Amino acid sequence: MSNFCRFYFVTWNVATKSPGQDLNSLLDFPSQFNKNKSLPDFYVIGLQEVKSQPQNMLMDSLFTDQWTSMFNKILCRQGFIVAKNIRLQGIMLLVYTQMKHVINLRDIEAQYTKTGLGGLWGNKGAVSVRFNIYGCSVCLVNCHLTAHEHLLADRINDYNTIIKEHGYHLTETSNILYHDYVFWIGDLNFRTHHPVTSSLSAEEIVDALQTVEKDKYTSILKYDQLLAVIDSGEAFSEFMEPEIRFPPTYKFHMGTDDYDLKRKPSWTDRILYKVIANNYENITLRADLISYHHIPHYTVSDHKPVVAQFNIKAFSNFTVKTVEFAPIVRIWYIGDADFRTECTLSPDVEINPNDWIGIYDANFHNLDDYIAYEYLAKVNLTQESLESGQPRTITLSFPVGSGVRTPGFYRFIYFSQPNNDVRSVLGISEPFEVSSKEDSLVAIDPCVEASTSAGGASKPSTATTDIFTDFTGLDVAKLSRHFSNDLSFD
């Protein structure tokens, strides 16, 4: 038995520019002419040359860049959750998932490798996010490799360095190539390179592009450096690429669709993939291509964005270890000493000392946006509860003033965290209401109170204002993390 998850990939070198154009069509969002179009299960957005402040990397980490803010505005308002993001100077990878998949995300981990200046500088290199979903391992890589036509050997070396140095904590998927599915996107910077005997100028390549019929670029792609090194086995030989049926994506004059003839037009921006099809006895894994193309009308950069969609096959009957939160049927009041939750762990859940439960806004947009948290280590666990093999019910109390200071609706989320770098979502509670004690003095119809406290028919309001409107530019995840740490829970 199997099911499919649809992944939508974007790679774009944004040349340190601001968004400047509406990004809805980049994400292939439903329009007024096609309102019933279904959305992907995951969006994977890889950017290169996002404006960075290398002289002040702390500011880069504290404040969300304009691109991330724009993607958040679009995707989070459609119900997508930021599962993980990672940034290495100008190289950024954003992974969004539909809410229904969050509870099945396991062993989420991010990694990076610097290749600039011999590994000392992060202007070139790769970032990645890996996780397990429905029994399959997925690794997503975004890279920016060495530039310039004549530095092919450096690009080959970049690839092999990333493969060698990029590592993860899970033994069975400690290497990028060990995952069931690998998608490698980015500005790979491979150029169009002709032999000296038949060398074409940039002008001649542009002229040749004008004569291409029905997106058949074979005659020009035979000089593509990436396809050559895949064929020779020097780099990316483990990967496949869908047929390229779009013109070179680099280099353009900013704000136009005209090639900048200072460089030979090249397919620098690519999306590659790898599948270990026969990793399991009872299922053959596969990635089915839906589309692979560029989007020419974006002109803010000297690169055109490239997008692809795939359906990947996963297990439909895969059972995961879970944590069930008991329903909260009463309104909690800010400052209550009895701010606690009860949850039941399935028999196969192993409790790690670093496991924790976070309090989130009911309509949270990012797994890092916790308001407060407590470690499971704070619970007096019996030996029986530590041993797996039977369901266990535990109660976790949050101290007075633990961060919930605004009336509204919230959720609990249980994270398994065997170490500081790997995280799994094991349980999410239904929304519950927190109110101020002043509000309790106001007469309330008990029937209304009962229906809202259980998170029933009325839609939960968010506990905070829309962070993407009022605090654009602030990385709320970082700020809330500092806030929790200031409380000295641990």
Automatic annotation (TrEMBL):
<dbReference type="GO" id="GO:0004439">
    <property type="term" value="F:phosphatidylinositol-4,5-bisphosphate 5-phosphatase activity"/>
</dbReference>
<dbReference type="GO" id="GO:0005737">
    <property type="term" value="C:cytoplasm"/>
</dbReference>
<dbReference type="InterPro" id="IPR000300">
    <property type="entry name" value="IPPc"/>
</dbReference>
<dbReference type="GO" id="GO:0046856">
    <property type="term" value="P:phosphatidylinositol dephosphorylation"/>
</dbReference>
<dbReference type="Pfam" id="PF22669">
    <property type="entry name" value="Exo_endo_phos2"/>
</dbReference>
<dbReference type="GO" id="GO:0005886">
    <property type="term" value="C:plasma membrane"/>
</dbReference>
<dbReference type="GO" id="GO:0001726">
    <property type="term" value="C:ruffle"/>
</dbReference>
<protein>
    <submittedName>
        <fullName>Inositol polyphosphate 5-phosphatase K-like isoform X3</fullName>
    </submittedName>
</protein>
<dbReference type="Pfam" id="PF17751">
    <property type="entry name" value="SKICH"/>
</dbReference>
<dbReference type="InterPro" id="IPR036691">
    <property type="entry name" value="Endo/exonu/phosph_ase_sf"/>
</dbReference>
<dbReference type="InterPro" id="IPR046985">
    <property type="entry name" value="IP5"/>
</dbReference>
<feature type="domain" description="Inositol polyphosphate-related phosphatase">
    <location>
        <begin position="3"/>
        <end position="321"/>
    </location>
</feature>
<dbReference type="InterPro" id="IPR041611">
    <property type="entry name" value="SKICH"/>
</dbReference>
<comment type="similarity">
    <text>Belongs to the inositol 1,4,5-trisphosphate 5-phosphatase type II family.</text>
</comment>
